[in-house]
Amino acid sequence: MSSANYVRPDPLTFKVIRKSTSRESEEIREKVRECWKENLDYWKKGEKGKALNLTADCIVNEIKEEIRLYHKELEIGKSYDVPFVILPADTRFPGFLNSIGDHMITTSAFAVSVALSMYDKGLLGDVIYPFLGNNSCDREILRGFIRLAALLHDLGKMPPCNHAERSYEYVKNIFREDGELAEALALTASRHHYGRYTSQDRRPSNILELIVAFADKVSSSSRSIVFRETDLNSGKDSMMNFLRRARGFKEIGYNIGSDEDLKRIEDLIRDGHVEEDEDFSGVRTYGFLDKDENASLRVNSRLVNAERELIGEKGEGKLVSMYFFEIPSIKSYVSRGTSLKVYAGYSLLIDYLNHEISRRIQEKVGPECVISDEGGSVLAITPSTFKTEEILTGVLDPEKGELRFFKYRDFKEDFLLSEFFLGPKEVWEGWGEKSPYLRDSVRSFGSLVSKFLSHASSSEIKPSSELGKERRIPINNTCKECKMNPKEEGDLCGACKLAQDMYVEFRNSVQSLLGGEDNPGKRVEVLRAFNIIRELIHDLKESGKDVVGIKVPITVDEWDENHGGSGWIAFFDADGDNFGKLKSNATTLTQYIAILNGLSFYIYYSIERGLLYTIEKKGEVNFVPLVLGGDDIIFLFRGDDVFLFSEGMDMALKNATYSRKGGELERKATDADPYMWFGISAGIFLSNKVDYPFILGKEEAERLQGISKEYSKTKVQPKLKGAGLITSFLSSKFGGTEEVSSFPGLVLSREDVKGLSEYMSEFCKSGLNTKNMRELLKYIKEDKISLTYRVFRSKGTDIVKLFLEMFNELQDEELLRKLVITFISVLEPMEDMPISAGNEKLKKDEICTFFNELEAKAQSR
């Protein structure tokens, strides 16, 4: 066994948490063996389909759990055992961005979809192995068998050389309790190469082996990212930077391919050409970035004709589909609620319904087939024969189904296998002299997803059984919350009552967790919001800290009562920057899932870290998750918690993105080199009334989030790559400024923000004088907004001279410090913000630097 060191950079930051060796390969085999042993009794009892599918589920769930722990490690620095994630699927550049775990999952997703489609269409032919069935193949046994063969096809890695032969031996040993099964799985898993460089006895010899081989090719571990042309970098420049970083890994002893292969790729990047064919043993680009637009079609010709080869004389057909489900306009449902329980309950209920649809797909096909079930929708790879109505049975029940109160959209579209690798067929040809980077960023899985989602978004929205009814509702019989539906239970309609019950169940489950009991119902245990709190409690207990500081109210009146009637509330609305662009850069499903998981867990753990940071600083955190789906976040905080939360969230994002001090690897490996900004833009709206209408608070916060996003686009993204939190906030009365001084974001302090440019222009035109300023000092403890407005209306001396005079004359140092911080917070949006980039900070303009120095002097007096 090779003792070489391997490296798998993060697909978003190119950072490496630690090296991998043959030891990780051994750990993976041990974990697979444990999964089989856990379910061996089912096999012995004759429940063969159950044994195989539960074993496959166990492997997939282990991979997904390691993906979660890997991203937690990125943000908090604690090491976890994650061999499926840190071991690359291919050691060679550029494929070393893909983990072995991601490649296993996507290969299985394609293989099981093809196999089940062919089974359902009667195209599999005679039974290949006796244990698959007596006279005809058993569908559940087939499903489990093909999933396991696909999941384990690369079990012989590392190293890549001769891995198929080792896969045969390892798989046969793991399933040794049944010789027939072990031999069949070993052959089907190991015969996944069909090129001329593969010996005849190692090539696919039957239909199941060929299915795994095509699935392996479609999920290709060797193909990686293609950079789109941007205003900042050409695709060629970005690819050359990536290659230089890869060579840095090689210089410090990591196996990423031969010097000859790297030189050939460099020539290719510089508008060259690489001679290769399918299963070429050296450099593998599969014809991508070649100046000849037909190179990739020629190199992948057998994959292009996969359906014809699989189906044979029975005709052409598409065997794999993408499926999409969503409840459109989540915020429109959430906004129906006027009480906390109904408002937040709708969001939780929709999240549960998405996970319920996802669960049903996982049961019928496999958990590896669900690409995403967050953000208010479900996206999955399925057989073309997949019957969508089957997974909706029950949830659409007109009497008890939760979906009966919602409009929904479900859409399925069939594709050729090769389209998952080469992008939509209509973009394969006709590129002429256009840039290969433009061409091959379009000929990709990311583009296929974009096409599919475009079709899905224009598909029919289906009315639910309840909403489809025509009825007249007396005004005195309408629901007190939504004012749309008739009362059914008390003052609430059926939908609002269901939402209210959902929030109460969620909150009760949180209270049980705080009391040491972790036994939520099936509706709550899948919720992202609940699992963040569960993990927060776990991390607090693990560090020996008390969990009583986690406070999720049943009504926001609790916050007012606990603070003598003077509590503040804050609406926090956030959205990811460039998340869609990053996903569209993915050339394969393997890369798409890796990027999607990265972005999803950046949000997940930055939220958890923000909550934890707040507790560490003040002993408690008061919050409610109003909306938490994908990169769409709306939280409600007690006002004085939101800034600590934001600070902690920002720190977590930067920890995940930039380099960590120390670590196992040399700085060339641990230093991050992100190629795009993928931070989070947020808006915070504060009110001193806990009964402030949720819908209005959300709208204000959403408007501020839009200002942050525009600032990110125009000021941050042209200069920074990586992640961080950019925040705008305002309130009618906000007096605290200590938090503002260290708050790492954009700070706006006007009640009537019409636009960032207008706001900055107005301040720059304002004039001040010493007399006016002395008069204004009395307002600083009372109302920062009033102070700011009065300053805007003042006329007089230059602002810098004014502060010099005040520094010399003012005796109240605390007031001076607060005043300086106030104006720094107003001025910072005018120029570069102090967002950390690694250990560096962006340079501020002279006036902001002056104010920082002035503040320091004031503090030292």
Average pLDDT for all residues: 77
Count of alpha/pi helices:
35
How does the overall form come out from the CA principal axes?
globular
Terminus-to-terminus distance: 67 Å
Which percent range describes the beta-strand content? 5-15%
- Report on the biggest sheet: 6 strands, mixed
Q: What structural class do you assign from the helix and strand content?
A: alpha+beta
Extended strand count: 12
Major β-sheet strand ordering: 5-7-8-6-9-10
List the uncertain runs. 660-669, 732-861
Radius of gyration: 29 Å
Oligomer: single chain
Helix content: 40-55%
Task: Report on the architecture of this protein.
The protein is of the alpha+beta class. Helices cover 49% and strands 8% of the residues. Among the domains are: 1-278 and 292-307, no CATH class; 314-466, Alpha-Beta Plaits (2-Layer Sandwich), CATH 3.30.70; 732-861, no CATH class. A 6-stranded mixed beta sheet has the order 5-7-8-6-9-10. The chain has a 4-stranded antiparallel beta sheet with strand order 2-3-1-4, with helices on both faces. Strands 11-12 form a two-stranded antiparallel ribbon. Helix 5 packs across helix 7 (179-190). It is globular, with a radius of gyration of 29 Å. Mean pLDDT is 77; it is low at 660-669 and 732-861. Residues 102-219 form the HD domain.
Q: What are the SSEs and their pairings?
A:
Blueprint lengths: L21 H23 L3 H29 L6 H4 L13 H21 L18 H13 L11 H12 L4 H12 L16 H12 L16 H17 L7 H11 L25 H5 L1 H4 L1 H6 L8 E7 L3 H5 L5 H25 L5 E3 L4 E7 L4 H5 L16 E7 L3 H4 L13 H7 L2 H13 L36 H21 L7 H4 L2 H15 L7 E2 L5 H5 L7 E8 L2 H6 L4 H30 L2 E9 L2 E7 L3 H16 L9 H4 L9 E8 L6 H23 L8 E7 L6 H5 L13 H10 L4 H7 L7 H10 L5 H11 L3 H15 L8 E2 L2 E2 L4 H15 L1
Parallel strand pairs: 5-7, 9-10
Antiparallel strand pairs: 1-3, 1-4, 2-3, 6-8, 6-9, 7-8, 11-12
Organism: Sulfuracidifex tepidarius
Pfam family, one: HD
Protein name: HD domain-containing protein
